[in-house]
Amino acid sequence: MAAESEKITINLGPIDLGQVDLLVQEGFYSNRTDLIRTAIRNQLNQHADVVKQTVARKSLVFGIQHYSRADLETLQAAGQRLQIQVLGLASIASDVSVELALATIESIFVLGSLHASAVIKTALAPRIH
User: CB within 8 A of 112, min separation 6: which ones?
Assistant: First the structure.
């Protein structure tokens, strides 16, 4: 799971942080991260219907979507271009050349994380929304 997670930073006021530490100290959570993950999951569960409706309305792929060099070469041979729309993780294989990416990827919209080489991200930057 660690390979599929992103580190984020949050700022909390001293009172909120103190309350978090109190709940950890009292044994409700094993550490601050455990409390924060639980709180986020609870909020995501509370809004699950909205997420599902929006994913359907925007035609987003929900979860993990990987694009290999072979996938993109197949698209290129068919004269097709890809509009990547993902809620979760979108990844472009490390062996995809800049030329192939530019020829086959029309646009990228990711709510979550995009994993691709720095050169691919730079080349596709104008197409990433």
Answer: 6, 86, 87, 88, 89, 90
Cα distance between residue 64 and residue 15, in whole Å: 37
Long-range contacts of 111-119 (CB under 8 A, 24+ apart): 111/60, 111/86, 111/87, 112/6, 112/86, 112/87, 112/88, 113/6, 113/88, 113/89, 114/89, 114/90, 115/89, 115/90, 115/91, 116/91, 116/92, 117/92
In the DSSP assignment, the letter for residue 60 is P
User: What does the pLDDT profile of the chain (129 residues) look like in tens digits?
Assistant: 345 788 899 999 999 999 999 999 999 999 999 999 999 999 999 999 999 998 888 889 999 999 999 999 999 999 999 999 999 999 999 999 999 999 999 999 999 999 999 999 999 999 999
Identify the H or E element spanning 121: helix 118-124
Closest CA to 113 of 84, 94, 91, 89: 89
Instruction: Enter the pTM of the model.
Output: 0.73
Count the residues in the chain.
129
